[in-house]
Structures are given as C-alpha cells and as structure tokens.
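Notes from hallway chat w/ T.B., transcribed later so I don't forget. T.B. wanted the structure written out for a chain they're using in a teaching module, and asked if we could keep both sequence and structure tokens in one place. Agreed to drop them here.
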Amino acid sequence: MEKQWRCTVCGYIHNGENPPDVCPICGVDASFFELVSQVDEASMSPEVKSNAKPIVVQPDREAAIRQALYRISYGLYIITAQAEGRDNGQCANTCFQITAEPARLAIGINKLNYTHELIQKSGKFGVSVLNQTGHDYARRFGYRTGRDVDKFEGLAVHRGESGVLLLNDVLVTMEASVVGQLDAGTHTLFLADVTAGEILQEGDPMTYAYFRASK
C-alpha cells in the first residue's frame, strides 16, 4: 500500500514512499510531514469505514516537538515603535492578552531586531492587527531590517497618542506602555498596559497558518 504523508501545517496529503521536500501549499519542509498509515478499506464494513481514522506514526522526539509547537495558533501583527526621532516596525506572531483589568498584553521580540532597540529606549509600542488580505504588510515588515530602509514609505499610516506610527488598512490598532520584561534567550517578552485602541475595519484577522497556506 502506498504511503500517505500529511502536512501538519495546512493538511496537504502527499502520496509516496517519502514526504515531499517542500509542501506545495504552505511551503514548509519535510520535517513538518507526518506519516499516515491506512488500513485496507476494501475489507472494512461500511460502519467501520465511516468511523475509521488514520493512524499517525509518531516522528522522532525533536521532530515531534517542532510539529507540536507549529500547531499552536498564532496571529500576525505589525509591531511599531518610535524613539529618538526614528520609526520602525516589524511583523510578529507573538502578541497575546494577559489580563482584562487592567488591559494588559505581551509581545515577543527578537533582541537583534531594530524594533527591540526602539521599544527598550522608549518603553512604548504599537500593534496593528492584520486582516486576511495583509500579506504585503507581512512581507514588507517581516523580510528586511528598518536599519537600512524606511518600511513605512508609501504606506497609509497615522500617529497614535503615544507617537508611534500605526497602519490604516488593518482591523484594529493598539498602543501600549511597557511595565515589565522577561529575558527569553534570543527574544525579550515585553509586558505592557494597553493605553489606546481603535477599530478601523470589520473582518477576520490574519493567522500565521492562513498566511503560510495562502501566500
């Protein structure tokens, strides 16, 4: 019986002795595929067949950890900051609410990123929540450094109450003031109180899985 491999990110099924080098749907590599073992359907009764589920063959420990982490649901956000007259922004998927009273959230930012430097200097940042047509924003703010280019050039933006730039063509924006931070190795986890928010559009937010599957 021919083997079947399932992409753990987008669900694409590949038939063959080995998984594909790259998923043709979402672009992840072979390590994100799991082997699906199927029984002979011809020997099943209709009731058994309707309730049958593929048996997942467990990958090795490291691959299992990677695949498990990849299944955590993420959004996609543009995190912006301003300090000493310089503006910058980056794409991030780690942004989540911590408490409602007070309104408090956390973001994870790579220490090497220019946005990290500006947040540490100013103690403030903005969050623009992308809609499901925000692919170009994710690419613009995610694949190059603001030390070399002005990522905001030609974009429709406005300044918030805190002075940070915020995107216009997004679902919502928020501004936040840092109240604490945690060293997370390569990243810093910034804990912040939300000081302002605005609703700009109705619609569904962009998720990381949707971006990978539709880019």
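Follow-up for T.B.: The two ends are 33 Å apart (CA to CA). Might be a good example for the class.
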